[in-house]
User: Which sequence fits this backbone?
């Protein structure tokens, strides 16, 4: 209706919502539904982090904080960037937001003018193009398929940059593919970026702690210190510490950018929850063994899920190098018909029929701007995953 602003039309209607509603309807009918569609850890927040929050309540840390976060947390974030990434950020070069999502939102809304271009390799987390659209910017989507490891190449980047390019957004490890850039791969991109000073880099490192096969995580400003002055290094507690509900994300960037983000956040949410900030200090400064234990569980699950998918007819799954998602190719199923008689014409038909006929909820690739695939989250209990993989196999074996 005409009460709604035009800018809202620039957000894509969420297909994940349609899937969730369908899954709920099936559950209400008494069907056994396995949801392997969620983007959050199935683990509980570690005890010592919860205790820090309880202590913060008792100590009356219940008031407004600085918009960009308490000094204690910004110092803990600075120490984390130094320790894990070799990056030197002062506390006033750090902003804490309500989840990593708000940090991205702050940065894009605070910097994009109408018509500015933002380069986004796909498959991508759909919030990037949606937020760029809200900011009146133009998302420039660059398809990066499994043949290139779902990674942007220097040649693709060079060809896409124009005088209007404001940002490049890279997410490593990636949601939904798990692709994780090595230092050499980032080096190639950095060399291109050094030639184009108008381009800023937003690196979404929120899955940093979840890398597999002994890989070492690295990030743009670490690989190329000369890019530090135009890089926003974004990270957070949601995935590393199983803290999605606490809403703690953070970014390190040059002072002028942090100041602009702080100004914007000051007219939206102000600071994120003071209790959650105290918990985040404990997460960053406390023992890191819970994070490593979770990482090992994800890696073992990845191995089993990918092996099962690659043993399933008509599917092919690239090996995720990090995060907790698999992103199998289902293009071989297009044109086939399910046991119940549904013709599969695209990735949406596939995930919808898989949910209806086998009770397995996943997310279609188009939700990540990359059709012909679907996303499985292995942030789910082992028994559930095993059952889900068996049902996917049954579903695919039934295709004619
Ligand atoms: N970036 C990526 C790639 C994500 O997958 C997510 C969460 O799903 C976020 C950022 C946002 O995290 P947060 O819950 O901290 O806002």
Assistant:
């Amino acid at each position: 209706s005409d009460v709604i602003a035009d800018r809202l039309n620039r957000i894509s209607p969420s297909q994940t919502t349609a899937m969730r509603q369908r899954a709920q309807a099936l559950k209400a009918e008494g069907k056994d539904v396995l949801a392997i569609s969620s983007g959050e850890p199935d683990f509980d927040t570690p005890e010592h982090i919860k205790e820090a929050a309880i202590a913060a309540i008792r100590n009356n840390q219940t008031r407004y904080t600085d918009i960009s976060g308490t000094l204690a947390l910004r110092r803990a974030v600075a120490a984390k960037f130094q320790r894990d990434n070799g990056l030197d950020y002062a506390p006033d070069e750090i902003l804490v937001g309500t989840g990593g999502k708000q940090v991205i939102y702050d940065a894009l809304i605070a910097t994009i003018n109408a018509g500015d271009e933002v380069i986004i390799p796909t498959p991508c987390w759909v919030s990037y193009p949606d937020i760029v659209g809200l900011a009146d910017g133009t998302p420039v989507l660059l398809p990066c398929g499994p043949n290139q490891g779902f990674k942007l190449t220097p040649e693709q980047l060079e060809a896409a940059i124009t005088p209007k390019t404001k940002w490049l957004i890279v997410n490593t490890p990636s949601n939904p593919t798990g692709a994780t850039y090595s230092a050499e791969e980032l080096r190639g991109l950095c060399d291109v970026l050094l030639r184009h000073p108008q381009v800023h880099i937003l690196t979404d490192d929120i899955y940093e702690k979840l890398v597999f096969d002994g890989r070492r995580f690295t990030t743009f400003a670490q690989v190329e210190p000369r890019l530090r002055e135009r890089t926003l290094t974004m990270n957070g507690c949601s995935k590393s510490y199983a803290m999605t509900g606490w809403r703690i994300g953070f970014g390190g960037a040059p002072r002028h950018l942090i100041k602009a983000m702080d100004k914007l956040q000051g007219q939206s949410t102000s600071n994120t929850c003071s209790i959650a900030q105290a918990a985040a200090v404990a997460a960053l400064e406390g023992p890191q063994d819970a994070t490593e234990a979770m990482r090992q569980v994800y890696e073992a699950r990845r191995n089993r899920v990918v092996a099962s998918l690659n043993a399933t007819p008509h599917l092919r799954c690239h090996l995720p190098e990090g995060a907790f998602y698999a992103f199998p190719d289902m293009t071989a199923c297009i044109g086939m018909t399910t046991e119940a008689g549904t013709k599969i014409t695209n990735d949406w038909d596939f995930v919808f029929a898989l949910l209806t006929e086998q009770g397995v909820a996943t997310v279609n690739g188009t939700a990540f701007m990359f059709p012909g695939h679907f996303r499985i989250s292995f942030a789910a209990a082992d028994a559930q995953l095993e059952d889900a993989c068996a049902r996917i196999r049954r579903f695919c074996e039934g295709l004619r």
The two ends are 44 Å apart (CA to CA). The chain has two domains: 6-44+290-397, 49-285. The first strand starts at residue 34 and ends at 35. The longest helix spans residues 289-310.
